[in-house]
# Entry
Amino acid sequence: MQRPADALAGPGWFAQHRHRLGDAATVVLLVAVLFPFIWLVQMSFRPNKDIFGYDLLFSPTLEHYRALWTGAFPRSFVNSAITSVASTVLALAIGVPAAYALSRGGFRSSRRIALWILATRMAPPIAFTIPFFLAYRYVGLLDTHLGLIVIYLTFNLALVIWMMQPFFDGVPRELEEAAWIDGCGIWQAFRVVTLPLAAPGLAATAVICFILSWNDFFYALVLTRTNASTAPVAIVNFIQYTGWEWGRIAAAGTLVMLPVVVFSMLVRNYLVRGLMAGGTKE
# Structure
């Protein structure tokens, strides 16, 4: 007769319970990942007197959100939206054709060129702070939307080219040649055939570029003052010598997090690379 300990240690027990173990591990992982966000959101609805309370049953209030819109935070939020959206659109408009040209150009060292392009993104931001600051002060781009858009475009462009090239490499050239035979030009075939098949990569690249621009704090802190100050920098203003306004910090953090979550949810169906594989099979 097999002992209970031997039955528990045998491979049959894991085979029978692997689905439950997988579900339990998934739940634990989700709780670990979502707990900071859930805690931040509930903290933004707590009254100041109970801001660090652990009681899940509390009377929610909107006083922190109302206080945000009476100061400079709304303007900073709009500044973040303008610079992030504009830099993402420009990076895609310039980087996607460049990645396509690099993929279809027949260069012998295309992979090496892509690595060199990506290498420009690997340097720490502080390495470019003084040159950018001095150049911006000379040309008058300090504390302007255009200044932030240009600097975000500079760093996101390399990322777009490096990420989109493998997706274009995965699209069979025969589909483009068939479009040429049907009368399409090079760029028309790119727009009608290649770009839709690379939609998952385009969506993933757009999300990453938007997140990197939206979450930037360092350059926005150094290169802006009041007119183009972004939301991450505005949150620092709630940290004062007299005390930290935790309610406003939590409310502002929740609002800053919201556009990224919404944008990611809107393009979630395109983030699976299998869509491109299914399109090429047809």
In short: Confidence is low (pLDDT under 50) at residues 274-282. The first strand starts at residue 239 and ends at 240. The radius of gyration is 25 Å. The longest helix spans residues 11-44.
